[in-house]
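step 3/5: co-fold with nicotinamide-adenine-dinucleotide
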Amino acid sequence: MANYLITGGAGFIGSHLVHALVARGDQVRVLDNFETGLRKNLDPVRDRIELREVDLADAAAVQQACQGIDYIFHEGALPSVPRSVKEPRPSHEINIGGTFNVLEGARLAKVKRVVYAASSSAYGNQPGFPRVETMSPQPLSPYAVQKLTGEYYMQAYWRVYGLETVCLRYFNIFGARQVPDSPYSGVMARFTLMMMRGDRPAIFGDGEQGRDFTHVDNVVRANLLAIEAPREKAAGQVFNIACGQRHTLNETYALLATFIGFQHPPIYGPEREGDVRDSLADITAASEVLGYVPEVGFEEGLRRTVAWYREEFAGQEKGTQ
Ligand SMILES: NC(=O)c1ccc[n+]([C@@H]2O[C@H](COP(=O)([O-])OP(=O)(O)OC[C@H]3O[C@@H](n4cnc5c(N)ncnc54)[C@H](O)[C@@H]3O)[C@@H](O)[C@H]2O)c1
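step 4/5: write tokens
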């Protein structure tokens, strides 16, 4: 049994990590200010975790939250490309400044390892697929720059202070508890809820852009493995976390429509500023060093996700034709 701190633990991915750790009997402290995360994501485990309602910008409170902690999963962020384009300053302050505060807190508290939620947006639109960690990054948006800066900080803290850090570059994660109805919602959650309500979702661009969609259970597994991986191979390293398969938005739309019973075509709109055209990961490094294997495939992940939204938004489902 170990002590874990999960920043952003009320959010989509963070709450899955919280639930997984509680289920195996670990001590969990959550740090979140509920900017995009939801209290109800923690309800089922609320009496078994310690919750600190703290802003990542508050260096002293973050440092206190790191005391007595063995391992940190740093998920807290403003995780949206369009939001970072519209309002770059808050994203900059939380995604870079907040990450710095976590690292400083971890260093001072002598935390054993920090696992960082990095982003595939670091690769940008450079040529060459699948994406391999050795490619030089080409971030396109403020968000991508911020998340990449977080990686550099993680690596510097390993090199300079010997704080063990592992960066996991997530590729388009989806699943239960992803917020579907915010202007910054991910595409999968947005499509699912709109189709259930009988509304036609919009696709930005021609829909032929590809994504390496990855179910959240795979991400939880990758994080737990990143804690156990040998220091000499994992510390200071970056790993792609994905399925290693590319699915277009048109294909994803069609499959979701079939599962939900929705029969209308999408509305096509202009491409969005800062969006990457394609993403597809090489997951060899994660497989060799962490022992990571994506256990939930794309279609199975979609099925589980639709089932969850059906339960969560019961009563909102329209006759779909
Ligand atoms: N979802 C994806 O596809 C994806 C892809 C790549 C990387 N990531 C990264 O994974 C992490 C989790 O993303 P998510 O999809 O679960 O998003 P999310 O918005 O559900 O979770 C982010 C959490 O951080 C919290 N937070 C935001 N600002 C904060 C602040 N100032 N102080 C304290 N807490 C704050 C939010 O309240 C929320 O609970 C993020 O770091 C994101 O950049 C996600």
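step 5/5: annotate
The mean pLDDT is 96.
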